[in-house]
Automatic annotation (TrEMBL):
Coiled-coil parts of chain: 12-54
Pfam families named among the record's database cross-references: V-ATPase_G (PF03179)
Name of protein: V-type proton ATPase subunit G
Natural source organism: Schizophyllum amplum
Subunit-level organization: V-ATPase is a heteromultimeric enzyme made up of two complexes: the ATP-hydrolytic V1 complex and the proton translocation V0 complex.
Length: 120
């Protein structure tokens, strides 16, 4: 009977060792699958990033001409406005100088309205 129990225990130990091997293999398999999934995800991310960068470059190239055209239009409009301001300045500078000189040279002395009359 001791031999039978010894053999049963031996069988259980072997089964336990085999189960431990299976668990270890499952862990290694899971770890490997996680590594594979991460590397595949990184590859997909890199591919997606490259595709989006290419799409952006294409968009940028197609709209770059629009930017330069807009800059030319803005420069032209600015030049027109500057010319209009310069023309207005040239037309009115004589009048402005005359008004300024009249204000400085032609002084009409008067008492301030808040000054009290002396002796009153």
């Amino acid at each position: 009977m001791a031999a039978q129990q010894s053999q049963g225990i031996q069988t259980l130990l072997e089964a336990e060792k085999e189960a431990a091997k299976i668990v270890q293999q499952a862990r290694q398999y899971r770890t490997q699958k996680l590594k594979d999934a991460r590397s595949e995800a990184a590859k997909e991310i890199e591919d997606y990033k490259k595709a989006k960068e290419a799409e952006f470059k294409s968009f940028e190239a197609s709209h770059a001409g629009t930017t330069s055209n807009a800059q030319v239009a803005v420069d032209k409009e600015t030049e027109q406005k500057l010319q209009a301001i310069t023309d207005t300045y040239e037309q009115h500078k004589g009048q402005v100088v005359k008004k300024l000189l009249d204000r400085v040279v032609l002084v009409k002395p008067e008492l301030h309205r808040n000054l009290k009359k002396v002796g009153a």
